[in-house]
Amino acid sequence: MRQRIDKPLAFLIASLVLGGAMIFVSAAFGVLGRGFSGITSVAFSHLVLGVGGGCILLLITLNFNYRHWRKFAPYIFALALVGMLLVFIPNLGFAHGGGQRWIVIFGVSFQPSEFLKIAAILIAAAYYSTIRAKVESFLWGVGGLVVILAAPIVLLVMQPDIGTLGIICITVFGVFFAAGARVRDIAILLCIALLSLGILVYEKPHVRDRVLTFFNPAENQLAEGYQISQSLMAIGSGQVFGRGYGQSIQKFTYLPEPMGDSVFAVAGEELGFVGSTVIVLMFLALALRGYVVAARTTDLFGGLLAVGISTYLAGEAFINIAAMLGLAPLTGVPLTFVSQGGSAMLISLASAGILLNISRSRRV
What we know:
Number of strands: 3
Structural class: mainly alpha
Distance between the termini: 12 Å
Number of domains: 1
Helix content: 55-70%
Radius of gyration: 20 Å
Largest sheet: 3 strands, antiparallel
Low-confidence stretches: none
């Protein structure tokens, strides 16, 4: 008899999606107050196509046995890489905000890198569950990780989309760690990651600017440091209990991207320290509950897949929140289940459905 889904996990996902929609609507009114004429289409894309379509995908993946994803993983990963290449084709891919990251099909824009996030998790879980006895081998363990990440690294640096690259590297590494990676291999990978980050900072001016702004946010407050300054001002003005839902002032004035990267700043101003803490704790609970599901799963593939998805959903949120609080450089990573972006919402909710399906397979 098929077991029921994990109720605490389902409650956390539902609460974050519903609460995220309310925060997004509040932020959207701020953009509307600025006289942005395209707000209707943006809101429709996010709420109807993103949240509505994402909930449909969640129901589909919830009722699709997660074990089947194992045999489809190589094809899904290959398809995601093809999608990443399409962004460089003239008249199909287009650039925005300094990045070549989107494709337009029948008038609808889509960001293939969002699809690559779950595709990378699927292929990593499938690979490490297949070679389970060889994970401690440097060739099969670290070598497999390098092979999985090689193409995504090249394509994401070319776009460039360093924030998404960071998410993919963290989630795939999380799968490798959960599969039984040796301490020596973990140390080697961390050294490689730090060296690679240093090269990126040196070679990519926009990455260097964000790192310098992180260490000295007070410098160039009208240029590189503008977003973090306005974000901290909004969050700080919320004080303990916030101004109240819908009462943010910064979203009507100077806060950049109030529906996107800076949506947590809107929430912080309206809900205060208490509300912001609740949001952080809910994402933390989502990660921990996902890891509990992984530990209770009856097969290795399901456990690794649950680890990857939990790390992806919560890790993305923590990176966004840390950037808005000045605890990490700005990356452009969205706040999971909240930030504007139909592609991100679709994949996040589809991934949540897979995680809920995995929760049905657990040791009693």
